[in-house]
Amino acid sequence: MLTEYIDKAMSKAQYEKLEDGTYYGKIPQCLGTIAFGKTLYECQNELKSVLEGWLIVKIRHDDPLPVIDGFDLNKGIPTLKETVVHG
Fold this sequence. Notes:
Elements: H1 2-11, E1 14-17, E2 23-26, E3 34-37, H2 40-60
Antiparallel strand pairs: 1-2, 2-3
């Protein structure tokens, strides 16, 4: 489920070649996900890593995630209140 969400989010990524020949990438639906790289490939890999970290923080803080192409990850993530702690 998470992998599918990441794939859908990455398909929305926008890249731009900068004046110095490096690349800049962002995912507009996932505010704050930006990356830079010497090559487009490097930028894409960095952006995916940034997205994964962004998701971890959003999930940890129980922040809502954007729905991408109808894929709503919010429905599949139990909140802390729903989680049973065994001890």
